[in-house]
Amino acid sequence: MQPYLTPGVHIKHIVTEPARVLRTGVPLFVGFVRKEYLDLYNAQQAEPEEQYIVDSQRTSFITRKRAYQALPQRPYTAAQRSLPTDPTSQSSGFYMTSTGKSNDDDRARVRQSYGARGQANVGTQETAPEQILSEKPQRFTVWPQFQATYGALQAYGFLSYAVRGFFENGGRLCYVQMIGYNDDSPLNAVQDVLQKLEPDDEFDLVCLPDIFWSPTDQPNNDWSTQLDMQNALLRHCDQMGDRFALLDGLPRADDEAIKSQRAQLSGDNGALYHPWVRVVDGPLGGLVPPCGHVAGVIARTDLSIGVHRAPANQDLLGVVDLAVNLDDERQGPLNEVHVNCLRAFPRRGIRVWGARTLSPSPLWTYINVRRIFLTAGRWIERNMTNVVFEPNNPELWGEIVRDLTVYFTQLLEQGALAGRGSGEAFYVKCDAETNPPALREQGIVVTEIGLAATVPAEFIVVRIIHGPAGVRIETG
């Protein structure tokens, strides 16, 4: 502290950074498309033919004319996967990509696509990647924005239906990451993209709607590759500790097949949903995987109440029917093994009727309990990374305890924690006992917290570890 040598009132301004905004219920959708189709599509994206001012006043838009080649129709079986011999036989045209006025604060881009008959489809978007694949996940806040960017892929997978279901159910923000794959490498492609996504922290839900696309119409399917993908995602979410996987049950599966699938999946940060949902204009008889619709329900619940509200007993919007209508007798055994069922009720509509994780630990049985801890971990990682470089002493420990006490008090006031006061709802411990000399010499700060989540209203103890490698949370 600066010494003051004269009597008087001394004012010291302390500048603190505001806490980073933490949005929840934000999914990442990973989509798949075969590489040869991408090569065909992107090869037709010629360089701009011309650049000019639209009007004579030179005040409107600078427009670029760019050619495109439509993707071939979706092949339904392995025998029909070859590319068309004459790519020019497919529908083609050009689109106009425009930047906003030079004096316009909203520099949204407008993409206008013209078919062979001169018909136009217009969509406004924040970003418009010139190729379908991009290094970073693309951000979308409205359904038309997604259509303008990835609309050409609707005939190639379930991605479009998942994203539409998300926005129909109240979602406001999602990210999309496309994967190009070959027949022999879909699992490798998933593992590679998950590794690239490790640094991203803008989303807290992850969906793989396309993994069942290619084989859904073939009899006697071998789902081993798809289950390997789901387990790869579960391992990724457990390793990262800041995201939750929403997995789809097998398509057109009976109860025993779903229980068999469930037995092969395990992870604290994931949940399985069954059955598939029927939507207007959906492929394969209208059936699509439910993960996008469920993600929208979670986003809607987070926005209206918070992550502590279980995403169950909520309407599924944009759904006209279910692949299978379950009753209490059939749901019981599925619920017992933590399969979250979707149910149709007379006069109540179609609802999410389960909120259990795939965790083998009874501590993490419920999705909302697990997400409370994941969200707390995300908040800590975003807002307390500076403690790694501070002297590991009682002053730092007191600062950590104060900051976390404020945060958990806010959770208590929101109804996320059980108990009438902070003593019953949580505790924070960061002292010489949690930080012995051996850890302090390694530059590691360990904080122990106990939270009484609303369900099951018992203390769950975790350890927050700040170290040179970042922040991680371990179950105590």
Notes on the structure:
This protein is α+β, with helices and mostly antiparallel strands. The chain folds into two domains: 27-304 and 312-353, 3-Layer(aba) Sandwich (Rossmann fold), CATH 3.40.50.11780; 385-475, no CATH class. Helices cover 29% and strands 23% of the residues. It has 13 helices and 21 strands. It has helices at 35-43, 143-150, 159-168, 186-196, 224-240, 255-263, 283-286, 291-304, 328-336, 367-383, 394-414, 422-425, 437-441; strands at 27-34, 51-53, 62-69, 92-99, 109-114, 120-125, 138-140, 174-181, 205-207, 244-248, 270-274, 277-278, 287-288, 314-315, 321-322, 339-345, 349-353, 426-429, 445-452, 459-467, 470-475. The strands form four sheets. The protein has a nine-stranded mixed beta sheet with strand order 7-8-1-9-10-11-16-17-14, with helices on both faces. Strands 2-3-4-5-6 form a five-stranded antiparallel beta sheet, with helices on one face. The protein has a four-stranded antiparallel beta sheet with strand order 18-19-20-21. A hairpin with a 5-residue loop joins strand 5 and strand 6. The radius of gyration is 26 Å and the shape is globular. Mean pLDDT is 77; it is low at 8-19 and 44-130.
